[in-house]
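Form P-L/3: holo structure prediction, ligand pyridoxal-5'-phosphate.
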Amino acid sequence: MPSFRLAGGVMHAEAVPLTTIAEATGTPTYVYSAQTLRLSARRFRDALGGIPHKHLAFAVKANPNCAVLRVLAEEGYGADIVSGGELAAALDAGMNAHDIVFSGTGKTRRELQAALDAGVGQFNLELEAEGEMLAQLAAERGYCAPATLRVNPDVDAATHAKITTGRASSKFGIPINDAPTIYDRLATLPGLQLRGLAVHIGSQILDLAPLQAAYERVGALLAGLRKRGHVLTHVDLGGGLGVAYRKGQCDADIAAYGAMVAHVTKDWDVSLTFEPGRFIAAAAGILLTRVLWVKPGPAHPFVIVDAAMNDLMRPALYDAWHEFSAVRPNGSQMIADIVGPVCETGDTFARDRHIDQLSPGDLAFFHTVGAYGATMASTYNCRALAAEVLVDGDRFAVVADRLDQAAFARQHFAPWQRSGLSSAKMREEMED
Ligand SMILES: *Cc1c(COP(=O)(O)O)cnc(C)c1O
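OUTPUT (holo model):
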């Protein structure tokens, strides 16, 4: 994380002390580094230098913040979206509709219509009936929708079970053995310009072997479909490259990935699309939090911070590991469980962790939360949605407001309920 470092004893995001951000915005707050976003975006692009025709589409689900998307749009990235909401987010950020790929297992008719009307550049179809619906909607508009068939190659990505997507038993894509007949049928539909294949086998992949196996299967299918007379010009290789979450771990070897892709696809003669999410955004974000209490525990103390599982779900959801550091480390260490205020035992960020010595009131932060962090937040326990800040050099700005009482803003009493009465008063009246 070149952009998050100690200077004068205080952790900085680029040139801005995290203490300054905490004073300005309070905590918990996500802080993103524009510089790290750009560096990762360029690293990814550079590694694919050997690929002549390519399109890079950032997976918006990893981080849909408009300011983050804007930085990536300026780097020439389009978007991979999975909902109408993400379509709006990508367009809002200034991305070209033409550079948007629409993925996702459950696209609705309305979402398909909105994407057609916006002029989305590619639809990745997940089932035959979806292709039929898209073809019909496009034909009604006198249009021919550019599409690929997402296949499920039945390869295990060797990652966490909840983020593997390329096994036959997972809901994603068309079983690779069924693809030729479905491709034959969809290719005849007016309204559909079926132009290739898509694959995405999972996330946080560090070992390239499963990716290579999946791509080779797609290559064999590509050749088979051409033998059947189809013209394929596009293949979407998805995302999935992993990053280092723990000290001592390494990011996926992006240079080796680029070389592997160049090798596997050298005779494909197609334009390749890539959909990196985590690899671009994860290291660009931290979650700034304040220690509320340090509570004695049976073996070690509990460090209770003001961030909770509703702000950062990954540890509760995936047993994910996030490094945790003091903003002003004093050189001492402690062993602690790091927990949040939510009333769930699952609201535990780390157990028996060696961390910087912390006391109530101290600032600290979780590392590597720029992907699948803020976007998974909820208002569980009627908590606020955390603020988000973008840093660029010595500038910083709030790019998502803290939303207090977000849970109530959208609630209403039913018309037959007597609003305005406190529940205590209601009970009193009932007892009368
Ligand atoms: C989630 C997803 C991605 C991004 O995955 P990362 O692991 O974040 O790179 C890309 N494509 C599709 C279809 C996805 O579902």
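COMMENT: The longest helix spans residues 208-227.
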